[in-house]
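Researcher: For the annotation table, I need structure tokens for FAD/FMN-containing dehydrogenase. Please keep the output clean. Sequence:
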Amino acid sequence: MTDEILPAVAGEILTGEAALSIAGRDWGNLIHARPGLVVRPASVTDVAVVLRFAAARGLPVAARGAGHSPYGQGLAEGGIVLDMTSLPPHRVVTGDLVSVDAGARWREVLETTLPHGLTPPVLTDYLELTVAGTLVVGGIGGATHQYGTQTDGVVELEVVTGTGEVLTCSRDTDAELFDAVLGGLGQCGVITRVTLRLIPAPARARRWKLYYDSLPAFLADQRAVVVDGRFDYVEGQLIPDGDGWRYMLEAVAYYTPPEEPDEAALLDSLGFGESEVEDTTYFGFLNRMADGEAALRAEGSWFHPHQWLNVFLTDDTVEQIVAETLAATGEAELGATGLILLYPVRNDRLKTPLFSVPPGEISWLFSPLRTGSPDDPLHNARLLELNVDLHRKARERGGKVYPSNALPMSTEDWRAHFGAVWPKLAEAKARYAPGNLLNPGQRLRVP
């Protein structure tokens, strides 16, 4: 295989043990699937060459960015892994738009836009993910209740289809492909370049941590601040507390001096108990996970299995499902470095056709982010079963997944998840990437 493709690729082709081992694992560290080779493309032409080569020979191909998928979604056993971080850096700000290569980290996007006083509207909590890596699942964060997902801020894409055709698409040009790629799990093409809309960037961020002893009170206040939009950023965390739980509403107001946030107005009518407040630069707040990542890498748990699950719950079931889950969750079910997130988003802000959430005014992202053990496969299997059980319970009560999970999903599961938009995705996949060869780790197949 290497001898056949080598003359046509300008970038690197890696077949060594270290490269194949790394490309056969991901962040979840639960599924291992060794590819036949790794290609580090030097241009979009290389990407097109690889996809044409693979299509002609029936070889699976996976596009890999940060390798942060939790359950083998970015793996290609016996096939080709495209390391998209090797694309030449392309970061250009023009007016209120930025054009970037698909392998750029969101931190690098910010480092490009902030000197111009601009920022993407929505950032994920972890900035070391790649742009294309989040756009194929949606890209959600604490500003989603204001601006939707990261996919909602995309203006234009350069995409290489599964047959190796290089196309530029937008809402006005090749809209079928545009809509099938954003939130489309990498099933119709490989994103190589992205144009994003920007908004004015603030200078600073004031962050409140508001603590509650009552789940209903916590949910009521989260619901209120998301609906009225008083904060720029809203998330929440469920924190083990002895034999019970505490609930932390994380709320942030952005500002640029000499203006100051109106604390009295922001906290008015909220029923929290204890609170903490801190003030940082805007970038410092967005990049707050950098120190935590370094610590987890140093002590080793960064490399443990991660049975992460993200489900969207309906507003009328969130309290019951969360309470039931917490009642059955202790340290063994969460892991020493695990955590649980919970926060609402406004459905009217979500415009990406393939981004599926339950019906209603708001949906709740519920994320038990479990950490497993590197030497206890039975325990790891048990944590996966907890994910399966919670997904089943959520789906039976009208919920959906945020599609980045340590969760076995079948084509029928995906059909149920996408619902009414499934036929459009299936048709686009059959047209742009026939053969079910592209990103097969998603386990989504069409005839």
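Researcher: And a one-line annotation?
Model: Residues 91-200 form a domain with the Uridine Diphospho-n-acetylenolpyruvylglucosamine Reductase; domain 3 fold (CATH 3.30.465.10).
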